[in-house]
Write a structure and sequence with these properties.
The chain is mainly alpha-helical and 98 residues long. The chain contains four helices and no strands.
Amino acid sequence: MPDIATPPPTETCRALLLRIAAYLDRSRPTSLMWPASRELLAGQFAAEHYGIRTDLVAEIEAELLAHAPGVTPGTRRKQYAKELRRAAGLSPVPEPPA
């Protein structure tokens, strides 16, 4: 069976990935990121964008989860935000020297 590649994210998906990343940067960035948080945030941001009772919520939530990387154990929210930006197509910004 051929491997079917995931199409690139839509503009709406990219925008929501970036909004979730910004939220993670602001909200407890040094806390651990959990797989359940990934799923919860996808649903929350999808519902905020389209309204809770529309068919589009399920579609964009599925697209967000298809493009948002899985959560590796030990990943902090700030690091996961960087991964979401990368998934949205942004180049990583180098960290300033310490």
